[in-house]
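Subject — a protein and its fold

Tokens — whole-number codes for backbone shape
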Amino acid sequence: MNKYRSHTVKRKSLRIAQIAPLYESLPPKLYGGTERIVHYLTEELVHQGHNVTLFASGDSITQGRLIACVNEGLRLKRNCIDPLAYHIIQMQELSTHVNEFDILHFHTDYLHFPLSNMLKIPSVTTLHGRLDIPELRDVYNVFPYQNLISISENQRLPLPQGNFIKTVYHGLPENLHHQGDGKGGYLAFLGRISPEKGVERAIKIALATNTKLKIAAKIDKADFAYYEKNVKFLLDDPLIEYIGEINEQQKTEFLGNAKALLFPIDWPEPFGLVMIEAMACGTPVIAFRNGSVPEIMENNITGFIVNSVMEAIDAVSRLEYLSRAEIRRVFERRFTVARMAENYIDMYHSLVNDTFKNVPRSSMPILNKPA
């Protein structure tokens, strides 16, 4: 069975350009949440009968048409000093093909704004990162009419002037992961080792509950000094096991065998893909109340939302009261790639038909809100 298959009703086929960042291949070989989502969306759009062109690195894989501006993802490319250069080439390549499309869907932050501002083709930008950076206010003041998609309601808060037309939550292929039984008995941490991701909190929770913690995470160059000073010595405890980065295939076993996923973030997380990856495995999540967490989590159903390490420690003792089957059902209801794609397709048709013109922002629909 095609893991991207959906049972949606086909509508008028659109010619869609998906413009991805070039830092990772699509799908990424290891870490890369944005690229993973763009890959899933692209493949589902193709499956639903749309004519999709993907602008991405040359080592990307797609059932659509691939236009590459660099031979491999820039994070793994040797001696790449200036990754912005290839993104400029990507924008130029797009401009030569622009009349081939009905809609342009950017995932490249604000880089393309000067170009898309001059184009007559409808365009939309999904913002995948944090928006509480002071300089961004000036950018969005200069480009007030760019159509923006947020990946959570909380993500929008720092930029009230942004022209957000919808919120669309991320989705995964329904059959990508399957429900696990948690028989491994360990707590899991998945993502990056960085101050905002809270790995130190995760270790405290594990030690306080005398529970094994497995850490599957990458360490960026920018975070290496933090790791050396604050984290490395904590890994010496026999309860703590650092296993490094894992790929998509390894996640099913890693998350499915876990007693729970710890998500002890200390920043306004725009979405938190790992939460729905855990849900797809039926694995409870213990998450700190930051950023998108209250939107993605259903407290006391898919896990526990906590406000402190002490509350997280208490939550570990209550995991047995949660149903892994119900957690999986929540994933299937709210966070599949088919649902995500349908939400985007609705928006594409509205933009192509100019439905959003002169509609007040406050009246724009928000998608995938909890039932």
Observations:
- The radius of gyration is 20 Å.
- The CA atoms of residues 75 and 146 lie 28 Å apart.
